[in-house]
Amino acid sequence: MTPIMSVDAVSFNYAGRSILDHLSFTLTERTSAALIGPNGVGKTTLLRILAGTLLPTSGSVRLDGVPIASYAAKARAQRIAMVPQQLDVPFAFTVEQVVEQGRTPYLGRLRGFTMTDRKAVDRALSLADVSGLRNRIFNELSGGERQRVKVALGLAQEPRLLLLDEPTQNLDIGRQVELIDLLHQLNAEGITVFASIHDLHLVTHNFSHVLLMAPDCKVTQGAPADVMTPRHLSEAFDCDPARHPLLMGAAR
Ligand SMILES: Nc1ncnc2c1ncn2[C@@H]1O[C@H](COP(=O)(O)OP(=O)(O)OP(=O)(O)O)[C@@H](O)[C@H]1O
């Protein structure tokens, strides 16, 4: 069980408001971990810190034992991809053009778009099952279609660690299952996954590790059966277990 990312005593404040307080955990190579918690608790903030686009107030984040702050932006983006909740595409780009942006970390003054990049884009489109949409205008797609294109964009970076911010939003149940299958497939191909998920029913059997963020910087983490208990969930989400079928049917 090799750790790919180690988070050690990370704290973060927005204008003095504490979001993370001495949070520590590791992500194990080739596994999928889930990040759950109520709206506004800090899930996106944590993902951005892991992606290296936001600096923690204190503590350290290491990728393969090396502080992520010491990677150059391109080197970091060749290793870590972040699939955001929302992707704003200002022009009438096609799906293919959007996904090609994922190759940016590999391009340079002396290195144009090559066959390797073309193959990576084709593979990403295929894995996310959006090859059939490649010539469609991204901004004209449905929410669920856009969701899959965003995943393809992340995969085009050929990362070792894929961070996903609510990847199942807008997906119908069939597409949710497909996305979960894709995450398992990525694990088998050597990619580590860390995803924030609001659909708690998807978490129990599909993720090996769960981080539950609750208000006041309280974090419970471990195996799904130990974390996803009615007590932990009802406290974190401020919801009476008797009022929600998912909480009644939680692990214990
Ligand atoms: N740039 C910012 N400046 C100040 N406060 C911010 C900033 N970005 C986010 N916040 C606040 O920090 C808190 C955590 O936000 P974050 O987006 O990380 O939550 P989240 O758990 O991802 O929420 P959701 O489930 O609704 O997507 C929220 O209260 C949010 O309003």
TrEMBL record:
Organism per entry: Granulicella pectinivorans
Residue ranges of domain ABC transporter in the record: 5-240
GO terms, molecular function: ATP binding; ATP hydrolysis activity
UniProt signal peptide: none
Task of the protein: Part of the ABC transporter complex HmuTUV involved in hemin import. Responsible for energy coupling to the transport system.
Name of this protein: Iron complex transport system ATP-binding protein
SUPFAM superfamilies hit by this protein: P-loop containing nucleoside triphosphate hydrolases
InterPro entries in the cross-refs: AAA+_ATPase, ABC_transporter-like_ATP-bd, ABC_transporter-like_CS, P-loop_NTPase
Keywords attached to this entry: ATP-binding, Nucleotide-binding, Translocase, Transport
Gene3D superfamilies: P-loop containing nucleotide triphosphate hydrolases
